[in-house]
Amino acid sequence: MHMKGTRRILFVLGLFMGMAVSAQQFITHAVKEGETLYSIAKKYRVTPYNILKQNKELKEGDALQPNTLLVIPMGGVQEEAGQAQDSTKTAAREPIGYTKHRVRRRETLFGITKRYQITEVELKRYNPQLYANSLKKGMQLKIPKYLRVAPEDLVVEETEWDTYIVKPKETFWSIAYTHGITVDSLRVLNPQLEDILPMGEALKVPKKLGSTIEDQSVALYQSYTVPAKMTFFSLGQEFGVTEEQIKELNPEVVERGLQEGMIIRLPKPEPETEVVNTENYNFYEVKPKQTEFSLTRQLGISYTDLLALNPDLSEGLKAGMILKLPKDLEGDFEVKNALILDKVNLLDSINPMRKPKVLFLLPFRLDKIDVGNTEKAKKSLQGRRDAHASLGLYSGAMIALDSVNRLGISVDVKTLDTRLSQGYVKEQLSTELLSNYDAIVGPLTPKALDEVAARASVFNVPVIAPAQSSSDISHANVFYSVPKPEMMRERLLEHVSAAYTDAHVIVIADAANKKTDSLIHQRFPNAKSLQLKENLSLNIDDLTAAVSDKKPNWVFLESDNFRVVSSVVSILNSVRTEEVAVKLFTTHRGKGFENPMINSSHLSQLQFTYPSAYKQVGTNAFTQRYLKRFGTEPDRYAIRGFDLTYDLLLKLAYKPALGQVTDMVGETVYNGNKFDYWREGFEGYSNKASYILEFSEMRVKEIEAE
């Protein structure tokens, strides 16, 4: 292990031993008579310099005026400050909107928070000027609004509700749309729901009229955007419904009342016979402030065609409308589960008020390493693949933490050494309050991952598997960041099928890959299979007789055996001539292809093509920063550590519910990895994003970008 690698190891381990990448916390302090900068600093166990840094209006040596509000950075253990941090954490919740408030004479923080039913912490979070300034008449405040409907306060008749079982690939919006209600109403009726919607979940939904003998009429509904100053009486006059019926159809208005911009469900007067058809159509939810021009331009469809599919548009475009669109429509958007997603730029969507808290669980094996002795530490780490992978992942994650910090995202990180022991993981988790975390990264081994996922699922905390992992136990809260081999195999076959014209397909598979042989023949029924001698080598005469000099020869080689791969690659290259074109594919580039003894020149001449979860990275901003910090180039583990952590933190800085963000954002691409998580019911989220790479002219290049 060279000196540069040692620098990375010792740097990372040194930081890990005292690791605490915490979000900066603040409290305010009202200066009392006789207090000085130094007495206050001593009280909160911070330096006078740190107080001056946060209070630019102060000058060192100036006398403090009584009642001056100071911002105190939390670096000490002062008891009141600790309580302030706890209250900040417990108060965090997601606003559904905002309103403005102009401060009147003699108003107090207490009075304002009581009026709007929020806490002082919440008020200050969205009005940071209150940390350093007292309330003043005329001050404009931003007031967060929260969903306050308590499900237990809703009085409903059980006979008016049905139970609906969630099917594979269904989403909140598709279920709400099918039953003619809003997503807000669906959540209110089913308070157990978090960001993950597991297959098989039993949901309470409105019973369709006509489902009983007493009521055999069909009820249909439409979305309605509440305008300014709208009342229940006015709605009743316009739509012929009572206030009680409106509240029954829209449980969220029971406590919040009608508010401008709210999208509610109302009876639709004209009958309509069609149902949601996700086989032939995709759907799009109209966003606020969208116009017919911007919408048709974004979706790549004429208004005439859009109107033909959605007659309701004749009444005008309204936020919340669900539009039906042709399945084959192409444009600058992504489609998930028949829902067209707007492309979200995470960098432009960061909420700096969010402070994600993440737990890393990796096998550093500190119990086997003497970090006080450099030479012993180097020897202990040599040959330890688990420790090497952990150091790579973690060093890349550290660069990601620095990167998001530069974007204004404050992250609270805790790191634990799993010691590659499930028992030790259990012991550590017994003292951890997992509900405090927004996400957990790791562990690496399947059994330890099962243990963590099971415990975290109780609190709906997502767990990100940073390495290839499989389990006999289903975990709905696990995000498998490395694409499964079968997904990448299917991706390669789809690519070859799309590029196929009139090639001559040959399949060479050893006994362990007969299933793959069958899959290839399903795609290419006329493919010719060649048998290996003693399951190890290929007869050159058989290959010579099988290749075509009229068509390009596309050869699939499926084996993890180095001897098989080496032999076949050499023979394939020998039969390649100006008349006989040969291109080599594999659906799984396993250890047989990764052996350094494989002739890379032969692979290059055969234009070796394969699927991969990872691609090589050239010199860029990340690699330069990594080199400067650790004195060595980042390996694939470090690149994955950066990409995975950066992706996770950007998503958590956008919205705290990782599953919800995943459904909204679609595919994200970084240095050498990309992520496109798809929910698979109780089996969690699988990353379906991978690369198709070609090794030719002695370099690897991506030949298809999704």
Describe this structure in words.
It is a single chain. Mean pLDDT is 81; it is low at 17-24, 76-91, 149-159 and 209-219. By secondary structure, the protein is α/β, with parallel strands linked by helices. The chain is globular, with a radius of gyration of 30 Å. The strands form 10 sheets. It has a 7-stranded mixed sheet with strand order 14-13-15-16-17-26-25, sandwiched between helices. The chain has a 4-stranded parallel sheet with strand order 19-18-20-21, with helices on both faces. It has a 3-stranded antiparallel sheet with strand order 22-27-28. The chain folds into 6 domains: 26-88, Membrane-bound Lytic Murein Transglycosylase D, Chain A (Roll); 95-145, LysM domain (Membrane-bound Lytic Murein Transglycosylase D, Chain A), CATH 3.10.350.10; 154-267, LysM domain (Membrane-bound Lytic Murein Transglycosylase D, Chain A), CATH 3.10.350.10; 281-347, LysM domain (Membrane-bound Lytic Murein Transglycosylase D, Chain A), CATH 3.10.350.10; 357-483 and 618-693, Response regulator (Rossmann fold, 3-Layer(aba) Sandwich); 485-612, 3-Layer(aba) Sandwich (Aspartate Aminotransferase, domain 2), CATH 3.40.640. It is 35% helix and 18% strand.
What are its keywords?
single chain; 706 residues; alpha/beta; Membrane-bound Lytic Murein Transglycosylase D, Chain A; 6 domains; seven-stranded mixed beta sheet; four-stranded parallel beta sheet; 28 strands; globular
